[in-house]
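Now for a sample.
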Amino acid sequence: MADKIYTISELNNLIKRILDAEDALTGIYVKGEMSNYKLYPSGHHYFTLKDAESSLKCVMFKGSAGSLRFRPENGMSIVAFGKIAVYPRDGAYQLYVNELIPDGIGALYVAYEQMKEKLQKEGLFDERHKKPLPSFPKQIAVITSPAGAAVQDIIRILGTRWPMTEVVVMPVRVQGGEAPSEITAAINRANEIGTADIIITGRGGGSIEDLWAFNDENVARAIFSSKIPIISAVGHEPDVTIADFVADVRASTPSNAAEIAVPDVGEVIAWIESMDNRLCRATVNRLETLRQRISDIADKRVLLSHGNYINDRRMQIDRSSERLASAMDRKISNSRARYAGLAAALDAMSPLKVLGRGYAIAQHTDGRIIKEAADVTAGDHITVRLKKDEVSCIVGDAARGGIAPVTGGSAGGTRNAPALEDSTVREDSTARGNSQISLF
């Protein structure tokens, strides 16, 4: 009997049936490094698991991927649970993944770290966004489970520390799949009402799974968007939830949140009494100071004897007037002496002193002083300034430097002057102060 000849499809289906029937391959854990990760719009995840020598193609369909607590990334060390099967169209076997677990750490921890990194980059943890708590809140909204011990602790401590505050409990589930949406809705509702001064949200301690609602992204964004300051009060110390990072104030426990939210009435009363005592002491001291001032003023001479005080002031004014008059006399005498000295110095330097001794000053008509023969030319009109008068002249021959006869004059005739350097002078003396002399 001849061997059967298989088509490709028949062979692939045969191999698929053989693999599907193998119990060892229907529920298998495979460990490797994730690479070539792709998330398709359909919601299916495709990736490859590899080690140092081999690789294995994997697929995780949308239904199984809905249970993922973290975001898969290339390079992560993964433990995948699923079954090995053949995809008949390609004739290649691959791992159909039902569950992904980060190798060495839990999936929730990976999801927590990824969410923390994402929100931190967006600035939701920045201190500049933190709102201050009011010192004396009138109303506090408590968002937590109504059946837990946390709400009882909060109510008890608030009533003891500051009984004037109204406490409004907004019951929500704090654990399970519905918890994040209820917490988010309660925070938004408290902001819509707007009567609360502070919001406290949280729960008692538990495992990371129990506390997971406070690591939810929607809860974190609701806390960040709240206009009312929020205290995160999740009862655990070793770990910190995402809500703790986003909240305006983090409390270690629900009881601690109540202590942070309100002051201690006993401490406030003690502070008021202390301030009252300080105010009383300050008032007494002030009154004593004023009494002493009044006593000092009453003992002053002006109040004991008005006449003597006025006489003292009169004598003081007289002495001041004498000092002022003496100072003015000295000032005037000094000024007069200085003026006399300056006048004598000015008189000694005056050109008029020189003219009084028989000298004269020759000037051009524009006032320029003639210092030598080169300063004038024949025919120039010049003025000769004497001690009291001025004489207008016409230059004859400046090069010879002599005085020539003068002709002309409206009155008085002519007369000959003594010859000086072979020259003669003729003066028209119509007036002593307005003589005309011409030089030739």
Notes: The domain at 8-104 is CATH 2.40.50.140 (OB fold (Dihydrolipoamide Acetyltransferase, E2P)). The longest helix spans residues 306-349.
